[in-house]
Amino acid sequence: MAKHRVHGIEFKRQVAAEYAAGETLYGLARRHDICRNLIRVWVAKAEAGEFDEEIEASNLLSAYEAKISALERLVGRQAPELEFLKGALKQGRSSRNASTSVITGPLVSASPKVAS
Q: Mean pLDDT by 10-residue block, N- to C-terminus, for the chain (116 residues)?
């Protein structure tokens, strides 16, 4: 299976400009070893202005902002779970030798010790 190639924006812009200058699809496809349909897609994108650096930067920024907000939502959902687990860990730290009952829990002394 052929390996998928990735072409840069500048190359795509160049091929679209060559097509706009009058080069044929067949000639461009043969010279650059790419599919004619891919050139058609690039030309359409170039005409729509999708190869402009400012638009590309704003699209990238929008994608990053969406990723950040998704991660913030994830952190917001996990924060209460972490607090619960921290509390459970504090409650669960008891002597391993202490006798416990499934029904009543750990044994406690009848009267609290008073500090002197």
A: 76 92 93 93 88 77 94 94 88 64 60 58
In a domain, 33, yes or no: yes
The encoded tokens of residue 7 equal 């072409």
pTM of the shown model: 0.46
Residue 105 lies in a domain: no
How many folded domains does the chain comprise? 2
User: Does residue 43 contact residue 32 with C-beta atoms inside 8 Å?
Assistant: no
In this structure, are 11 and 46 located in the same domain? Answer: yes
Neighbours of 16 (CB within 10 A): 21
Domain boundaries, position 21: 7-50
Q: How far apart are CA 55 and CA 110, in angstroms?
A: 73
How far from 68 is each of 56, 76, 78, 82, CA to CA, in Å? Answer: 18, 12, 15, 20
